[in-house]
Amino acid sequence: MFKKVKFGLQGVILPLAIILIWQIVSSKGLVNSYILPSPLYIALRCMQLVKSGNLQLNILASMIRVVIGFLIALLVALPLGIILGLNKRVNVLLTPLLNFFQQIPGIALIPIFILWLGIEERSKIAIIAYSALFPILLNTVIGIETTDKNLIEVAKINGLSRIGLAYRVYLPSMLPNLFVGMRLGLSYCWRSLVAVELLGASKGLGYLIQQGRELAQPETMFLGVLIIGLIGMMFDNLSKGIEQKMVRFKHINKEE
């Protein structure tokens, strides 16, 4: 426990040092405050937005979009990945088409999605879901395809049903890859979120950054960027914690 605390403290030394140097450089006037506002100004702006409620509103709007888009991607990618991993014919049929779309970034499809779905929430969520789809899908397929063949044969010899095979063999085997895909998917969600909100939104962190640019408030722009990074780290750490607990399921099944 003490080692973890020590490691955690070491992890914040560099960020704190950067903030300190940043503040000193800004307070000494070595850099134009418009180009690089000081951490103090950013903190004061943060307090103003929190007091007015605007910051919470924009954070909530962005998080709702990301969560909905990510869940849609997961609900599509997980069953599709399982089918592709287990059915070679479907894999051969769909892989070329999926490889084609995998090369197209979600940002490139923003104008098309807006044309089809309008400029409101549906197009934004569609882009976010599209961006998270392929990391989850590909890692699900890899997780199934790399399942130990010996375990599959032993399970079949012991008369395990298809459902039992999926639950007792494939699922524990694919969990590590699935969580890697989910973490990558969340990261892609945040990247696409900023793009769709910068191009057209009335609320959200991307909108907050755009508003800061239009109103010549660099501290607002920096604040938006910092919050996106912090929330992204929070999601990543949360997914790591869930991954560590869920992957234990794999070892429990092995022992049984």
Main sheet overview: none
- C-alpha termini separation: 30 Å
How many independent structural domains? 1
* CATH topology descriptor: MetI-like fold
Total helical segments: 10
Q: How would you describe this structure to a colleague?
A:
The chain has a single domain, classed as Orthogonal Bundle (MetI-like fold), CATH 1.10.3720. Helices cover 84% and strands 0% of the residues. It has 10 helices and no strands. The protein is elongated and about 75 Å long.
Give keywords.
mainly alpha; elongated; MetI-like fold; 256 residues
What are the SSEs and their pairings?
Elements: H1 2-27, H2 39-52, H3 54-86, H4 88-102, H5 110-117, H6 121-145, H7 149-157, H8 162-199, H9 205-214, H10 218-255
In short:
This protein has 256 residues and is mainly α.
